[in-house]
Write a structure and sequence with these properties.
By secondary structure, the chain is an alpha/beta fold. It contains eleven helices and 13 strands. It has two domains: about 1-170 and about 210-235 and about 275-290, NAD(P)-binding Rossmann-like Domain (Rossmann fold); about 185-205 and about 240-270 and about 290-305, UDP-galactose 4-epimerase, domain 1 (Alpha-Beta Complex). The strands form four sheets. The chain has a seven-stranded parallel β-sheet, sandwiched between helices. The chain has a two-stranded parallel sheet with strand order 7-10.
Length: about 300
């Protein structure tokens, strides 16, 4: 199958590209490399260096004629979205509409959309949040990802496009940028291996649902095969505090420094974890990598990077 992957040189997208290539698919990556890294790119995939908002995206679609699109390119930082909601909307809303419209014009049958269950539900009254939980984002990022889902629903109703939205919890693993805005696990690991002091934003009691990137890849493969319309939480359903993450990574990495707490980050909810029952039922997906094992794999990856 011909699959176009936006953001395919990034943390999550590059792992998805690897899996698609290994499954025998013909993959074209569209990535402007603003946050992605060409070193992540599978050598059997082709790269078009493009911003997804650019009119030039049409040329990539017209020449490749993808049968499916896996859309991971996005502005992913909550803090950046709060500081610059216009740019967040440009990339996450206009970029998604540009992808959907080019998919429609070129006969693409299926779009898989990387959404954010971690940001979309805001501060849920009942946990774990499921797909029926009210969508009440408290950051422009969460809002822009939800608007992308609404546009996907429109293209489904108006044009028959199969639109699968994967509402990710907090993803971690190899290739995540330790200098990036998103990803406390990568940030903590980078600091601890460099023996510099990581900062815990707030009191560290914030609860998140951490999913290993390999499990995210399996969800994308299941979505491609299942061709199901709708939104699906991709999560473990297990809440873990930021303080617990700090101490577990410290133990694995041999870091002996004390906790250091900084100010809270605007737009971050206190507690979000998700119910992925629907993904199990409809896609046959369940998480397989326990947090302790995933953290050990992640620390080992970054150790090799530091060597």
């Amino acid at each position: 199958m011909r699959i176009l992957v936006t953001g395919g040189a990034g943390f999550i997208g590059s792992h998805v590209v690897d899996a698609f290539v290994e499954s025998g698919h013909d993959v074209l990556v569209v990535d402007d490399l603003s946050t992605g890294n060409e070193r992540n790119l599978n050598p059997k995939a082709r790269l078009e260096r493009l911003d997804i908002v650019s009119p030039e995206l049409a040329r990539a679609f017209e020449s490749f004629k993808p049968e499916a699109v896996d859309h991971h390119a996005a502005q992913v930082s909550v803090r950046v979205s709060v500081d610059d909601p216009v740019e967040d909307g440009r990339r996450n809303v206009l970029g998604t509409v540009n992808v959907l419209e080019n998919a429609r014009r070129n006969g693409t049958k299926h779009v898989i959309y990387a959404s954010s269950g971690g940001a979309m539900y805001g501060e849920p009254a009942n946990l774990p949040a499921n797909e029926e939980t009210p969508v009440l984002p408290i950051s422009p990022y969460g809002l822009s990802k939800y608007v992308g889902e609404l546009y996907g629903g429109y293209y489904r109703r108006a044009f028959g496009l199969v639109f699968t939205s994967l509402r990710y919890a907090n993803i971690y693993g190899p290739r995540q940028d330790p200098a990036g805005e998103a990803g406390v696990i990568a940030i903590f690991t980078g600091h601890m291996l460099s023996r510099t002091r990581p900062i815990i934003n707030g009191d560290g009691t914030q609860e998140r649902d951490y999913v290993y990137v390999g499990d995210i890849v399996r969800a994308n493969l299941a979505a491609l095969e299942g061709r199901k319309d709708g939104a699906f939480n991709i999560a473990t359903g297990v809440p873990t505090t930021v303080n617990e993450i700090f101490h577990t990574i410290a133990e694995i990495s041999g870091y002996s420094g004390e906790e250091y707490h900084g100010p809270e980050k605007a737009g971050d909810p206190q507690s979000v974890y998700l119910d992925a029952w629907l993904a199990a039922k409809e896609l046959g997906w369940n998480p397989q990598v326990p947090l302790q094992e995933g953290l050990a794999r992640t620390v080992e990856f970054f150790k090799k990077q530091h060597a």
